[in-house]
Amino acid sequence: SQELEQSPQSLIVQEGKNLTINCTSSKTLYGLYWYKQKYGEGLIFLMMLQKGGEEKSHEKITAKLDEKKQQSSLHITASQPSHAGIYLCGADKGRGSTLGRLYFGRGTQLTVWP
Amino acid sequence: DSGVTQTPKHLITATGQRVTLRCSPRSGDLSVYWYQQSLDQGLQFLIQYYNGEERAKGNILERFSAQQFPDLHSELNLSSLELGDSALYFCASSGPGGEQFFGPGTRLTVL
């Protein structure tokens, strides 16, 4: 079965520090999604990557999908307490009829202390 | 605010009962997805509808069913509830671009 491995499982950083979260698959990723979730709340869409080598940024968050489309990283620059939460990567099961059927990693819990 | 609405926000019921969760997608989105999030299993895809028709099924139990109505809202029906069905249930919707936007979820507690 397809699985997404996220690392680290948890991360505690001081405000202002940079950090990176990784999402790795043993199979080709046809669509890679990054979401942020506050505990017990809904998922906030951050970015979707589809092409090998693609990179997208929004405010202080940058996500990349490697050329082989098997690994993605999420980088936060100058972290703030507002960045705290659970970051989830999700991926499409495949092409065609399964497009949109996402499977997710277990998440990375980010804590930012002032 | 993602534009996806879900009701109710919380639901507490007893084992053996039946409940219905409701979802309204973002305006213009034809696809609706249902996911279940639990501590044991993480976030898992249950079922997808596109413009009223079932498109894909995931790890959805036979006790669970869903439908999408002509106005595109969707309902997830859970019956013969068990303690293990306690979880957060999310609805998501997407348009032509494929990005899935999630609702705030319904927290189901089965006692």
Mean pLDDT of chain B equals: 95
Largest sheet data of chain A: 6 strands, mixed
Structural class of chain B: mainly beta
| Strands of chain B, count | 11
Q: Note poorly predicted spans of chain A.
A: none
How does the overall form of chain A come out from the CA principal axes?
Answer: globular
Estimate percent helicity of chain B.
under 10%
Q: What is the terminal-to-terminal distance of chain A?
A: 41 Å
Largest sheet of chain B: 7 strands, mixed
Distance between the termini of chain B: 31 Å
Tally of contiguous helical segments of chain B: 0
Q: What fraction of the residues of chain B are assigned to beta strands by DSSP?
A: over 45%
| Spatial extent as radius of gyration of chain A | 14 Å
How many DSSP H or I helices of chain A?
0
Helical content of chain A, roughly?
Answer: under 10%
Q: Secondary-structure element order of chain A, as H and E?
A: EEEEEEEEEEE
Query: Cα-atom Rg of chain B, whole angstroms?
Result: 13 Å
Mean pLDDT of chain A: 91
The helix-and-strand class of chain A reads: mainly beta
Fold blueprint:
The complex is a heterodimer of chains A (114) and B (111).
Chain A: E1 4-7, E2 10-14, E3 19-25, E4 32-37, E5 43-49, E6 55-58, E7 61-65, E8 71-76, E9 85-92, E10 102-104, E11 108-113
Parallel strand pairs in A: 2-11
Antiparallel strand pairs in A: 1-3, 3-8, 4-5, 4-9, 6-7, 7-8, 9-10, 9-11
Chain B: E1 5-7, E2 10-13, E3 19-24, E4 31-38, E5 42-50, E6 53-57, E7 64-68, E8 74-78, E9 87-94, E10 100-102, E11 106-110
Parallel strand pairs in B: 2-11
Antiparallel strand pairs in B: 1-3, 3-8, 4-5, 4-9, 5-6, 7-8, 9-10, 9-11
